[in-house]
Each structure stands twice: as C-alpha cells, then as structure tokens.
Amino acid sequence: MQEERKKIIRYALDYDIIDVHTYNGYKGDLVVRITVKEKDAMLAIRKYALASGIKEVIIKENKDVIQYEIYCITEDEGAYHIKETKALDEIHTKHITDAWNKQE
Length: 104
Fold this sequence. Notes:
The chain is α+β, with helices and mostly antiparallel strands and 104 residues long.
C-alpha cells in the first residue's frame, strides 16, 4: 500500500470514524474512502490529506444520515493507463454519426 494511503488511514483512526474502505478507481487511481459523522473530523482529515500530498480529495455529504464521505485519491504508478488519442476518438465519432444520421 502506498505510504500516503497508510498515513491518511492512521490519521483518520484518531477520530470517531464509521468506515474506512480502500479500492482501485478508474484508470489505476487508488482510493481511500473514510466515512465520519462529525463535521470537525471531516475538516481535519481533509486538511491533513491535502497537506500530505494526496492527489485529490473529494467530500460527499449525505444529509439523510448526517455523515460525510471523504475520498482520498492517489495515482498508482504501477497501473497501466489507457491512451486516449484524438485519432481514435474521431474514428468512433465518425462511425456513430454515420450509423445514426444516415441520409437517404
């Protein structure tokens, strides 16, 4: 596990957390999701994550159950990334346009 993810999990354990979940995201990103009930805990964990070099931090608030989900996203340097080329996009766009907008 990456050092950044270990640090954020250890830091979050100092607070009253509901859940910690790690998984692989889209295009090889590694995600740590931390769920807390207290806004102060969410703000502290967010601040720590941003200061520790986490690539991206996203907060989702669930008002129905009064909890916050903190998504800490880091890049997995060993993952294979799909190349998105302009030429490939143009080929697929042309094909879709021709199939659906066929003029008769």
